[in-house]
Design a protein that fits this description.
Layout lengths: L4 H12 L1 H8 L8 E7 L5 E7 L2 E4 L6 H12 L6 E5 L4 H9 L6 E5 L3 H10 L3 H4 L4 E4 L4 H11 L8 E5 L3 H5 L1 H42 L3 E2 L12 E4 L5 H4 L11 E4 L1 H9 L6 E4 L4 H7 L9 E3 L5 H6 L5 E3 L4 H9 L13 H12 L5 E4 L30 E5 L5 E5 H15 L7 E3 L11 E2 L2 H9 L4 H14 L3 H4 L3 H33 L5 H20 L8 H8 L8 H38 L1
Parallel strand pairs: 4-5, 4-7, 5-6, 8-13, 9-10, 9-14, 10-11, 11-12, 12-13, 14-17, 17-18
Antiparallel strand pairs: 1-2, 2-3, 15-16
Helix pairs in contact: 1-2, 1-5, 3-4, 7-9, 9-16, 9-23, 11-12, 20-21, 20-23, 22-23
């Protein structure tokens, strides 16, 4: 049986973009006031016009659409290797011409604001080649929030420096005021991804240094996977350092024994000064600034939950028994699994509150989850609560390009920035995807509204959810938690020696890699003088060797982040062959010299870590 054009297109769509297929199947054509109608150009080509509220907008040239599409594509000059984002799919000839100018490594994201435009195209034209092209990502969306999340997830960190955006003819006019909103959303998604990368680049070496420095404490710690469901159905209060914390922090004295309190380092001093001892401290930040939050405080009596990259001084200063590893480092996960040991893997989010959230929900299985001090906005122009260790607490609001308005918890609009906005979206997404029936309450008395939470005053939360709870249940769970506690050393007596052996092997391989990298630097400098096939073949052999080794040794991923970002975002888009050769050599220099610096940084840290573990 021969497929119709629509069925052919739909079969490809269903295979590559399942969610789009579901959107189209549930779409009612009668609910829209826009239509796409086919027409014939002067040269006999099929073209399309868009009819909205009886106004007609042509999406192609009415005379020579194919020839004009080639001229337009030349003018737009899409990125060969990077990411191209285009608004609109209505001009198929232009889309095809853009694709001819994009290399295999390049990508094209097509955002179509009107579902029926895509449906009409699929009914009229065979666009299966576009739908089936692995370089193409097609996005439809129900609202701008959904568009932002889809786009954010599709943008790769490796191409953030090579993004080009363009709009197909007449789409700006068709969209009217909505056009500006779409552009703002696209910019927000790109900005959020850029901030992720900036964080990774800023902390790459710090995280690596802390990881190796903390391996000694890993074996002196319990593992978070031992405590799954440890506080099932117990209320958890996640205390953050937002400006509104000063309004209700004193009320947390009334919840002792009725809920568990989880906090980060920034709020620890403020809680202790108010005679409130949290049940758990969570720490993830590798910076020295994070250690300063703990400096001068006695916190060894409070269980400390940490990620391997946290500042090593924090672990060193915690003299208590109850340190708990929550692993978010693939390297550790791989080695432990190699020996049949499951320590769990929790990716977390970008903030300590995100990790506290994941521990409370995915590990302890608490309910309800109660946010306090989680403003996620600059309430009254401040970053943090007074007393939460912030010397630069006031925010510069005037002419600040990084600020945006979001819905406030009190029904108003509040100012935030892209970092806090990213955390807000993270919480909302994780709450949305929680199908457990867990209750989420936002008892932050100011700041942003977190969708999926019930806004309440903390005093009302205590009366409604906590007042009638007895202390016996939580005390029993706490006693069991401490009674069951065992360190990795206690659970796996001989494993540490296998782990040390793994580190020694990695160190030996790094020394071999360094020799190869030095040779690559030498060869790369010769290419410009003599573009010899022998040199190219040897470099190709070294590149394959390096790729294989780095895939095996994920430990160095952190310190390779900066060099990887520079290499992958290096744009080789040249006209002449000579210019191309120069660019290739420059890209090689960035790669090999970056690898050399990274390995020379790593080797002494590996030696120190091995020596400390042997002691």
């Amino acid at each position: 049986m021969e497929y119709s054009v629509y069925e052919k297109n739909k079969s490809i769509l269903k295979k590559r973009f399942k969610y789009l297929n579901n959107v189209i199947e549930n779409f009612c054509i009668n609910t829209t006031d826009v239509r796409l109608v086919s027409d014939i150009a002067k040269d006999g080509s099929m073209i399309f016009k868009f009819i909205k509220n009886d106004k007609v907008y042509y999406l192609n040239s009415k005379y020579r659409p194919i020839e004009d599409a080639k001229k337009w594509a030349d003018y737009l000059a899409p990125k060969k290797e990077g990411l191209n984002i285009v608004l609109g799919i209505g001009n198929i000839y232009l889309i095809k011409e853009i694709l001819t100018r994009i290399d295999e490594e390049g990508r094209l994201i097509i955002i179509e604001p009107f579902i029926n435009v895509l449906i009409s195209l699929m009914e009229t034209l065979d666009i299966s080649d576009i739908l089936n092209d692995k370089r193409v990502i097609l996005i439809l969306y129900n609202d701008l929030d959904e568009l932002e999340e889809i786009l954010y997830n599709y943008i790769n960190w490796s191409e953030i420096g090579k993004i080009k955006f363009f709009t197909l003819p007449n789409y700006e006019k068709i969209l009217g005021e909505n056009y500006k909103s779409i552009i703002q959303v696209i910019n927000k998604a790109i900005k959020r991804k850029q901030l992720d990368i900036n964080t990774l680049k800023q902390f790459d070496k710090i995280w690596f240094k802390n990881l190796l420095g903390n391996l000694y404490y890993v074996f002196k710690s319990g593992e978070v996977s031992d405590f799954v469901h440890a506080f099932r159905d117990v209320p958890a209060i996640i205390v953050s350092a937002g400006p509104s914390l000063n309004k209700n922090v004193h009320l947390l004295k009334d919840v002792k024994g009725k809920a568990i309190i989880i906090t980060g380092g920034r709020t620890l001093r403020l809680l202790l000064e108010n005679e409130i001892t949290p049940d758990f401290i969570v720490t993830i930040d590798g910076s020295y600034r994070n250690y300063e939050f703990f400096e001068g405080i006695e916190y060894s009596h409070i269980p400390l939950i940490y990620t391997p990259n946290t500042n090593a001084n924090i672990l060193q200063s915690h003299k208590g028994r109850y340190k708990i590893l929550v692993n978010n480092v693939p390297f550790l996960d791989r080695i432990f699994k190699k020996y049949g040991i499951e320590i769990g893997f929790l990716p977390g989010g970008g903030s300590v509150a995100c990790f506290a959230f994941e521990i409370a929900t995915k590990i302890f299985n608490c309910s309800p989850i109660i946010f306090v001090g989680q403003d996620l906005a600059f309430t009254n122009g401040f970053r943090h609560a007074v007393g939460a260790n912030d010397d630069m607490n006031e925010v510069l609001l005037k002419d600040n390009p990084n600020l945006l308005f979001v819905d406030g918890v009190n029904g108003d609009k509040v100012l935030t920035d892209f970092v806090l906005y990213d955390f807000l979206k993270w919480f909302e997404k994780n709450i949305l995807y929680d199908n457990s029936g867990r209750v989420y309450i936002n008892a932050t008395e100011g700041g942003a509204h977190i969708r999926g939470t019930i806004p309440m005053k903390l005093a009302d939360v205590i009366n409604e959810y906590l007042a009638k709870r007895g202390a016996v249940e939580i005390e029993e769970k706490r006693n069991k938690f401490f009674g069951d506690f065992k360190t990795l050393d206690e659970k796996f007596e001989d494993f540490k020696y296998s782990f040390i052996s793994e580190l020694k092997t990695i160190k030996y391989e790094f020394e071999e890699i360094l020799q190869k990298v030095n040779r690559a630097i030498e060869l790369n400098e010769k290419i410009l003088e003599n573009y010899d096939e022998k040199i190219l073949n040897e470099l190709d052999f070294i590149d394959k060797y390096l790729l294989e080794k780095f895939q095996e040794n994920k430990i160095i991923d952190d310190i390779l982040m900066t060099v990887s970002y520079k290499v992958l975002n290096y744009d080789i888009d040249c006209e002449s062959e000579e210019e191309m050769k120069t660019k290739v050599v420059e890209k090689g220099n960035i790669l090999y010299k970056g690898l050399k610096e990274a390995i020379e940084f790593a080797l002494p840290l590996l030696s120190d870590s091995i020596s400390k573990l042997i002691e």
